[in-house]
Design brief:
The protein has 25 helices and 14 strands. The protein has a 6-stranded antiparallel β-sheet. Strands 8-12-13-3-14 form a 5-stranded parallel β-sheet, sandwiched between helices. Helix 8 runs antiparallel to helix 19 and helix 21 runs antiparallel to helix 22. It is elongated, with a radius of gyration of 57 Å. The chain starts with a strand and ends with a helix.
Length: 830
């Protein structure tokens, strides 16, 4: 378990405060009253519950005085998964909720599953210590040290002690040697009274002597079986003891039989090889990360689309054509509106004359017609000067009104639309009345020449006096025909351009409106541009990764060569062989220590007895045989008890008044009850013995590993002045570098504290694979100078490789060391 973050809603002097524990080891500094103990109590309380507030715990609750909120939360990492453990005010230690990274929530039961067998007392005994614990080190005698190491060696020993107490309490509730109120004591007393009454009530019966003889024989048989049972029980206990010692004996034999391995490498070379292994693995991991990134880039690169980056100019050209066609479309729309008006005007002209209209006269032809009609030139000239060209003026008025009319429609301006319509209508009316007032009558005419002129120019169907007057309409008619033809040609040209453009479009964009096509083309161009940018970015990133990979390959090759050079000295060729080499080397180095450690757990008598068995199977066969014999004896005792009871019942039947029979039956029932109570009492007693032996065996299995690890830590803390720790009958001894031996009582307070720390941290390291919890230390190094404190911090960094370490201190000298700290005093000022 690792505590990553903490948030305090309210706890003691802390409220609405966040803490980050990402550093490992995490060193927290604060002078007295800065809140170190409060923060440490908060971490333990969130995991194991708030103090109940009764007795001496009433001051351990840390109820805040400045806020109504009480509690907080921890973000912890367990087996690679994050959980938020939140505890608030509530009964039985507070209300708990556990939320995992997927948002699933649990309660107290979920927290117990995460913590396993760990509780507050066990955690504080194993993973937390303070200066007060270190101060009391020199006051521990050998038995207390032995008990302390036994608790360290067997995880859950506190629960085992509780189980022993529970079994012993249950056994005492059945029977005590000097008790009177316990059930078995009372039943035995009652059994003795019933026996006295039976002896008094027993008379002379016909078969009494035979039954008594049979009863005596059965009792003798029962005594013999019970005696044999008592004889076999110690043998069974001895064999069970040998069974428990067999693993230690087997290891002791193996340590004697294993040949030492030649040591080809120095410790410095082994350390360097291990560091090179770590660096090589890290480089390989980085290579894999870059390769995965390359694969991810290739996988996430823009998919091949219908429009590759090379077709983007074509799409841009189509977009520009779409814009031009949109403008042309608007122009054609306006021109169509104008053509409709032209058509209406042309229809009005043709309707006015009710005949097919001829072509307009040229100026020379109009002059000739005026001469034939004998029109006065001065009057015509004056009329022309006064009125100007009526057709051109009318055209300007009509076109201007129409333009205003269209602008009003497009701008949704009703006023402009109305002005345009009025202007166009007024122009048309003005032209009509002007032409009516300008009729000129010829002075003299040449009828034949006029008729011939009319035939020649298609005017014969119209009155001659209108030929000159209608020339404006004929001219307008010709202009409108030409404009309509031009509009038609423009429309055909536009339709042709639109068809060509539509044919050039992708199938998905054909037969859509120009606005839709333009929007689609904008989307395609934007996608193409984005794809081009993504490709360029991916290309740059791939080039960077390729450079990094090349550098990593060079570093990897160099480190690999250095590592293989060391491997060659050790006679190995790969990591697996080197790992086996280290295992053999470590086994060879610890062979003598292991042999001594296992030998100390076996007496000479134990080794002699165990040597009589060729293997474990032979020992188990003897144990099974003894157990079978005990089972047969118990069966014989039970059957003999039944025969005795039958004899007693038969004797009772001989009693004429029935008193003896009733008493014997009552005593028989009582005897059966006593037998059941004795069996239950024995079961509790045997359970107590078994747990004690199991606890001792479990502790013995942990001793060697803990002591070996503690020796390494003790050597590191004392700058290798001490290299060995021994558990002897006289107490705990340490061996100095010059082979001089010291008892713990002979050590200085600082060195004794270092020994205690080495043992505690040795346990944490050995048990990290089964019980991995944060190590919390409260001002544990007060008696250490700067050199020792620096070594202690180096050891904490080593412990932090497997366990989280949180160290609280009020010693401001910690600031002089080159370590990162969390200053609670500065945090409070913020």
């Amino acid at each position: 378990m690792k505590i990553k973050k903490a948030h305090i809603d309210g706890f003691g002097k802390w409220h609405d405060q966040d803490f980050d524990f990402t550093a490992n080891p995490q060193i927290i500094y604060g002078p007295n009253e800065a809140g170190k103990t409060t923060l440490m109590a908060f971490l333990v309380s969130i995991l194991f519950g708030f103090a109940d507030g009764r007795g001496k715990n009433r001051f351990a609750q840390y109820i805040p005085k400045t806020t109504s909120s009480y509690g907080g939360s921890l973000l912890v990492e367990i087996n690679g998964h994050d959980y938020v453990i939140k505890r608030q005010r509530g009964r039985n230690g507070g209300k708990v909720s556990v939320t995992d990274s997927q948002g699933r929530q649990g309660d107290e039961q979920e927290l117990k599953q995460l913590l396993g067998p760990m509780d507050r007392s066990l955690y504080q005994a194993l993973f937390s210590f303070s200066q007060r614990d270190l101060t009391a080190v020199d006051e521990l005698n050998r038995d207390e040290w032995q008990q302390h190491l036994q608790q360290l060696g067997a995880v859950g020993s506190a629960q085992w002690d509780q189980l022993i107490n529970q079994y012993q309490k249950q056994a005492d509730q059945l029977y005590k040697p000097r008790g009177r109120k316990w059930p078995l004591n009372q039943d035995l007393h009652q059994y003795a009274n019933l026996t006295d009454k039976i002896n008094q009530a027993r008379g002379k019966f016909h078969r009494y002597q035979d039954l008594q003889a049979d009863l005596k024989t059965n009792k003798a048989k029962l005594r013999q079986a019970q005696a044999e049972l008592q004889k076999q029980q110690p043998l069974l206990q001895k064999l069970e003891h040998l069974q428990q010692l067999w693993p230690v004996y087997h290891e002791w034999q193996s340590s004697h039989q294993t040949r030492p391995l030649a040591d080809y490498l120095t410790d410095q070379q082994v350390t360097m090889a291990q560091e090179l292994q770590v660096r090589e693995k890290e480089l390989r991991r980085q290579q894999q990360v870059y390769q995965q990134r390359l694969a991810r880039i290739d996988h996430q690169s823009p998919k091949a689309t219908k429009h590759s980056p090379q077709s983007m100019p074509e799409l841009q050209r189509l977009k520009e054509q779409a814009v031009e066609l949109q403008a042309e479309e608007a122009l054609q729309h306006r021109q169509q509106t104008q053509a409709n008006q032209w058509q209406q005007e042309l229809t009005a002209i043709k309707t006015r004359y009710h005949q097919p209209l001829p072509a307009p006269l040229t100026p020379q032809e109009k002059a000739e017609l005026a001469r034939l009609l004998n029109v006065q030139p001065l009057s015509r000239a004056n009329a022309s000067q006064s009125t100007g060209d009526p057709s051109r003026t009318a055209m300007i008025g009509i076109v201007g009104g129409f333009i205003l009319f269209i602008i009003g429609l497009l701008a949704n301006a009703t006023f402009i639309t109305a002005i345009g319509a009025i202007a166009a209508f007024a122009t048309v009316m003005y032209l009509y009345y002007q032409r009516q007032g300008n009729h000129l009558a010829p002075v003299t005419t040449d009828s034949q020449a006029i008729m011939a002129f009319g035939q020649k120019h298609g005017l014969q169907d119209f009155p001659p006096d209108q030929w000159l007057l209608m020339q404006g309409d004929l001219q307008r008619n010709a202009e409108l025909d030409a404009q309509l033809q031009t509009a038609k040609q423009d429309q055909q040209r536009y339709d042709h351009q639109l068809a060509i453009f539509n044919h050039q479009l992708p199938p998905a964009l054909q037969n859509l409106t120009l606005a839709t096509v333009r929007a689609k083309l904008d989307d395609l161009l934007e996608q193409g541009q984005q794809a081009r940018q993504d490709i360029q970015a991916n290309t740059r990133e791939k080039a960077t990764i390729a450079n990094n990979l090349a550098q990593l390959n060079q570093d990897y090759s160099k480190i690999h060569q250095q590592k293989m050079a060391i491997y060659q000295q050790a006679g190995v060729h790969d990591d697996n062989q080197f790992t086996q080499y280290l295992a053999n080397r470590s086994a060879a180095q610890s062979q003598a220590l292991a042999s001594d450690a296992y030998g100390q757990q076996l007496t000479a008598e134990d080794r002699q007895v165990l040597a009589a068995y060729a293997n474990k199977d032979e020992l188990m066969t003897a144990l099974s045989k003894t157990r079978h014999q005990l089972d047969q004896l118990n069966l014989t005792i039970s059957q003999t008890h039944e025969e005795i009871q039958k004899d007693k019942v038969a004797i009772d039947s001989l009693v004429k008044d029935g008193t003896l029979s009733n008493l014997e039956q009552e005593r028989a029932n009582l005897a059966a009850k006593i037998w059941r109570e004795v069996q239950e009492w024995l079961r509790y007693q045997l359970a107590v013995q078994w747990v004690n032996k199991a606890l001792a065996g479990a502790s013995a299995d942990r001793y060697p590993a803990i002591i070996r690890q503690a020796e390494q830590y003790f050597a590191l803390l004392t700058d290798h002045r001490y290299s060995q720790i021994d558990l002897t009958a006289d107490g705990i001894k340490v061996v100095r570098r010059d082979q001089e031996v010291f008892l713990v009582e002979e050590l200085s307070q600082g060195t004794a504290e270092q020994l205690y720390i080495a043992l505690r941290l040795g346990f944490v390291t050995v048990m990290s694979d089964q019980a991995n919890f944060p190590v919390i230390i409260d001002d544990g190094f007060v008696n250490f100078d700067n050199v020792r404190r620096q070594r202690m911090l180096a050891l904490l960094e080593k412990i932090a490789e497997k366990n989280q370490v949180i160290y609280f201190t009020a010693d401001d000298r910690i600031k002089d060391l080159d370590v990162k700290i969390l200053d609670l005093q500065a945090l409070k000022r913020e």
